[in-house]
């Protein structure tokens, strides 16, 4: 899902960077103002988890591959804005240091994989979870479906960006200048492998990681924000 | 950064060590074909794509490999683990900026 450079026209890639600069500005402000100091290591661990889980390529029959992202897990733990920031940091480092995803395309990739996935996944999760406990059956089902839906919507927006190139940018002789297949093919290919394979894996990864966090640090899954103070051994309890 | 939630970092270390499993999927993801693969996969290289494909020239660990260490699965696996560690440390470094800014 990491779009390399060359697959998007500059007319697509540059505006996507222009969109993501203010989005990440808002996300950074939200993290700075809404998260407590003690939550920042969770953001760091979650973003690092996202970086590593994206390295677990899954073989797709037919010779392709796909992977999970971990954005919805982070959104469940710290909210969608923090998830958007954390996953974007992972994506930018992947592009700069490892050549996974382009530099011109980094705005588009952050939009699809960090922003779209975190928000769609998170609100799907919230809708299904309702008032249920995070670690209840319903909470876990919501986490699975949130991860599943988030990853698939991200695959869809990526496919739409790909496919739009074919229809909008062609050389004088009619050959495509950038991405080379129509929207129909891009959507069919991207969405099918995520619906069938990477989506369920994303759901499973979200559930297992949430269970791991809850088992080790139950306070992190408490719905009451008071956990921050209850862990403080008195400091801040007067606030 | 690593002190408060030790078990999360131990879990992450476990994943880092398992990461070479990701190398078993050898296929390239849809729409991520390199210049060397495009002719086989697609049949031609679009001219605009060729112009921008190598826009960024400063990739230190291309495709999570240590340059020159791609010969065997063992070498690739070692490069993959090193890449995962470098990636984790860089992510933590960037996020730790927010540690200073956030309130207690």
Overview of the structural elements:
The complex is a heterodimer of chains A (about 240) and B (about 100). Chain A contains eight helices and two strands. Chain A has about 240 residues and is an all-alpha fold. Chain A has a single domain, classed as Arp2/3 complex 21 kDa subunit ARPC3, CATH 1.10.1760. Chain A has a two-stranded antiparallel sheet. The relative contact order of chain A is 0.15. Chain B has a domain of about 70 residues. The longest helix of chain B has 29 residues. Chain B is extended and about 55 Å long. The mean pLDDT of chain B is about 95. The chains are: A mainly alpha (about 240), B mainly alpha (about 100). Chains A and B meet through α1, α2, β1, β2 and α4 of A and α1, α3 and α4 of B.
- Approximate helicity band of chain B: 40-55%
Number of distinct beta strands of chain A = 2
Largest sheet of chain B: none
Main sheet: strands, sense, barrel of chain A: 2 strands, antiparallel
Radius of gyration of chain B: 18 Å
Average pLDDT of chain B, rounded to a whole number, is 95
Instruction: Look at the helices and sheets of chain B and give the structural class.
Output: mainly alpha
Q: Tell me the count of domains of chain A.
A: 1
Task: Assign the structural class of chain A, choosing from mainly alpha, mainly beta, alpha/beta, alpha+beta, or little secondary structure.
Answer: mainly alpha
Low-pLDDT runs of chain A? 225-239
Which band does the percent of strand residues of chain A land in? under 5%
Radius of gyration of chain A: 19 Å
Helical run tally of chain B: 4
User: Could you say which overall geometry of chain B the principal axes of the C-alpha atoms support?
Assistant: extended
Distance between the termini of chain B: 14 Å
Helical fraction of chain A: 55-70%
**Gap between N and C termini of chain A, in Å?**
44 Å
Q: How do the strands line up in the largest sheet of chain A?
A: 1-2
* Average pLDDT number of chain A: 93
């Amino acid at each position: 899902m990491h779009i390399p450079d060359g697959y998007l026209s500059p007319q697509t890639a540059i505006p996507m960077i222009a969109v993501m600069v203010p989005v990440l500005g808002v996300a950074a402000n939200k993290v700075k103002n809404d998260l407590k100091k003690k939550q920042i290591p969770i953001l760091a661990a979650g973003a690092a988890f996202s970086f590593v889980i994206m390295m677990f390529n899954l073989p797709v029959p037919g010779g392709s591959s796909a992977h999970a992202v971990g954005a919805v897990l982070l959104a469940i733990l710290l909210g969608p804005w923090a998830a958007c920031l954390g996953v974007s940091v992972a994506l930018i480092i992947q592009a700069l240091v490892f050549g996974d995803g382009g530099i011109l395309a980094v705005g588009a990739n952050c939009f699809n994989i960090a922003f779209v996935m975190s928000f769609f996944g998170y609100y799907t999760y919230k809708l299904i979870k309702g008032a249920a406990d995070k670690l209840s059956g319903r909470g876990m089902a919501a986490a699975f479906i949130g991860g599943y839906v988030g990853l698939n919507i991200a695959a869809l927006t990526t496919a739409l960006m790909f496919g739009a190139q074919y229809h909008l940018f062609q050389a004088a002789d009619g050959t495509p200048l950038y991405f080379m297949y129509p929207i129909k093919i891009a959507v069919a290919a991207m969405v099918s492998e995520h619906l069938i394979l990477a989506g369920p894996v994303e759901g499973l990864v979200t559930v297992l990681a949430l269970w791991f966090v809850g088992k080790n640090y139950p306070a992190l899954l408490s719905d009451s924000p008071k956990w921050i103070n209850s862990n403080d051994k008195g400091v801040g309890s007067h606030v | 950064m690593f002190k408060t939630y030790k078990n999360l970092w131990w879990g992450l270390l476990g994943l880092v060590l398992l990461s070479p499993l990701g190398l078993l999927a050898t296929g390239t993801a849809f729409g991520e074909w390199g210049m060397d693969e495009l002719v086989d996969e697609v049949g031609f290289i679009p001219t605009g794509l060729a112009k921008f494909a190598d826009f960024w020239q400063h990739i230190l660990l291309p495709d999570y490999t240590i340059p020159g260490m791609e010969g065997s699965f063992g070498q690739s696996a070692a490069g993959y683990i090193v890449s995962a560690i470098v990636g984790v440390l860089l992510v933590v470094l960037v996020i730790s900026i927010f540690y200073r800014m956030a309130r207690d």
